Each structure stands twice: as C-alpha cells, then as structure tokens.
Amino acid sequence: MRSVMAYIAGLLFGLGLAISGMTDPARVLGFLDVAGDWDPTLMFVLGGAVVTHFVGYRLAMRRPHPLFASAFQLPTRRDLDGRLLGGAALFGVGWGLSGYCPGPAFASVSGISLPLAAMLAAMVVGWFIARRV
Amino acid sequence: MDMTASLHGLIGGVLIGLSATWLMITLGRIAGISGILGTLITARPRGDSGWRLAFLLGLVSGPALVILAGGGLGNVAGRAGAVIGAPAGGVATMLVAGLLVGVGTGIGSGCTSGHGVCGLARLSPRSVAATLVFLAVAIVTVFVVRHVIGGGA
C-alpha cells in the first residue's frame, strides 16, 4: 500500500512537470533570463505548487500521524550554515547552465538524449561526492 | 505574455503541490526529488527504498502518459503541445552542470522541489534561504552565459 501511495504521488508530480512545461529546459532558462525575453511560466508553477502545498501541508499536520506511516519525517534544523548556502549556490550554477533541476531531468527520461544522459550520470556522481565532503 | 503557457504552468504547479501534500498525508515524507533519488542511489536504505522506487516510477510515467495520451497537453516553448524539451547544451556542458547539481543539492540538502516547493510551503528558514540563493545564482549564471559570454543571444 505504501508503494501505491508513493506511486500516485510520483505520478501527480510527473504529470505536473509535464503539463507545466518544466520538462523543457528552455522554459526554465527563459524564466531565469531576466535580461532577455522573460518567460514567467516557472513563476506560475512555483506559485501554484507552494500555495497548494501551503494549505495541504497544514491539513496533513492536523493528523497525529500519516495514513500509512507511524510518524511525519520532517527536517528540524532552522539554522543557516555554509553547507546549505554553498550547496545552494553550486546547484544554482548547474541549474543555470542546464535548465535542469533533479526532478525535470529525471522525469524527462522518456525523451532521453545523450546530453540528458550525461547530465543524469554526472548528477549521480555529484551525489556520491557530496556524501564525502 | 503567453496566457496558455502561464495557465499550463499554474495547473501543473497545483498538481505538484497536490503530489507533495499526498506524499505528506500518506507517508509523512517530503517530496524532494534530490533527496528521494539521491538517497536511494547513494545509501540504498533498507526498508526505506520501496516507496522511493515507486515514487520515481510514477515521476517518470507522468510525462510518458502525457505523451502517450496525445492531445498536446505539454508546454514546451515554441512547440505547442510537445512534452519533453531539448537539452540546452551539449554533453560537456551537461556533465559540468550535472556534477554541480548533484554536489550542490547533496551538500545543500535539497533542490527546487524539496527546498523550493515543500520548504517554502512549510516556511522553513533554511529552505527560504536556499531557494533565494539558488534562484539568484542561477539568474546570474544565465545572465553571464547569455549576455556576457554569448553577447545577448
């Protein structure tokens, strides 16, 4: 049952990425290119997602525990440190170079190309490196 | 402004918000892709991998279903209805970008979904800071690539 629930969540996420156009790096880069022909699409995606989850998260938290798990697993840290901000900065460079963040890159495998395969492989290498630094 | 593209963005965004809510209500987990996928590959946590695999299968089947269904529900820029856009660079650029995205989301504990969508909705100070940093750095990166190096292309 846990797998079915997770599959439904993944499916909703994948449908959202596909319908919103976030599986197109040009849309993402068009949003980030504030000095060019600006594309506001990503703003609507992030806005729609955050507002929906802002409400949904609070509804979820009214329950004592999740429907199919014993406890909510939430990050508890609230401090800012160099790893968080430095990591976010490195990610920002990679995102700006490619227009891919992890979700859209992985969700796009049904349209796999050599550059996308290279991106995904390097991303995995990056995750292994991150565990050692 | 392209109203159709914006409407697609809004509808897709709501679906992503519903996905994050669904995962939280059913399994109590944050819908952060770098965390779900990265942890599965690098740590293969026992008893905590099944739901990750199922989520990722769903994530891939979303765009695949939209392609199979036809009807032009995608939102690729300049190709009305297409679902998967072309990569913005060649293999060399993507290798560098992928490495930076992997290392960055790994040590920064999240990406656009975990920090951007879930973290902002939870009003997490760490996620708000991370999102502002990666957005600002990505905007500067695109500016340098397109308008400083690329001469305004």
UniProtKB/TrEMBL annotation, chain B:
Keywords: Cell inner membrane, Cell membrane, Membrane, Transmembrane, Transmembrane helix, Transport. Its main location: membrane. It is a multi-pass membrane protein. It comes from the Bacteria. Signal peptide: none annotated. It is found in: Cell inner membrane. Coiled coil: none annotated. The chain crosses the membrane at residues 20-41, 53-74, 80-107, 128-149. PANTHER family: INNER MEMBRANE PROTEIN YEDE, SULPHUR TRANSPORT DOMAIN-CONTAINING PROTEIN. Belongs to the TsuA/YedE (TC 9.B.102) family. This is Membrane protein.
